[in-house]
Amino acid sequence: MSKISKFFKGGGSAASKGCRGPSPQEALARLRETEEMLSKKQEYLETRIERELALARQHGTKNKRAALQALKRKKRYEKQLSQIDGTLSTIEFQREALENSHTNTEVLKNMGYAAQAMKKVHENMDLNKIDDLMQDITEQQDVAQEISDAISNRAAFGDEFDEDELMAELEELEQEELNKGMRDVRLPSVPSTSLPSRPVISHELHSYIIHVQHATQRRAEDEDEMKKLAAWAS
User: Fold this and answer.
1) Each residue's pLDDT tens digit, 72-103
2) How many other CB atoms are found less than 10 A from the CB of residue 76?
3) pLDDT above 80: residue 192
4) What does DSSP assign to residue 190?
5) Tell me, what DSSP letter sits at residue 2?
6) Positive or negative, the Cα torsion across 65, 66, 67, 73?
7) 3-state secondary structure of 33
8) How many CB atoms lie under 10 A from the CB of residue 229?
9) pTM for the structure as a whole
10) Which of the two residues, 149 and 229, has the higher pLDDT score?
11) Cα 114 from chain centroid?
12) What distances in angstroms separate CA 26 from CA 8, 23, 109, 113, one per listed residue?
């Protein structure tokens, strides 16, 4: 059986007999009083040792008997002083052990209070309800994510029309516009005189060329816009 088991077993027997031991605070107070008393006794013995040593020196060989008696008393005081030193060391060790035991007891007591409080907090908690709650939270988070994805997706407006058909219709409109422009153009009459070395472009032909260039540029810009529109719709 360990020393701790023997200690608690003995304490239980004492408690069953109705004996109540001192509290740790009371025992510590008694030990400190004892230490203080022994410290004062040390000071007293040190003073007596110095006094007996002075007497021995004073008598010397003139009064050998008195000098020897003084030395014998000094030896006795030194022996008592040595015993007190040992006793103080033992008491100091016991006091420190008691303080540590008291600290450990308080720590264990507080840990027990904390365990009871934690148990009381967890009494009204149902693990099944916690699992259901966490499952509900997960499901609601999934629903919220689906709603967010649906809102952030681009609406497919106009996707019911065929893009190739629209491009073909646009090309026909542009071709009709070009044909109409060419019908409205009046070609200049052939001059009877010899042509100059450098051809002269008439105002109408120049306007027609500019018109064709603008139409071609518009067509290229429209095609570029349609490509961008198609890329955005895809």
Assistant:
1) 999 999 999 999 999 999 999 998 998 898 88
2) 14
3) no
4) P
5) -
6) positive
7) helix
8) 13
9) 0.41
10) 149
11) 24
12) 20, 5, 19, 24
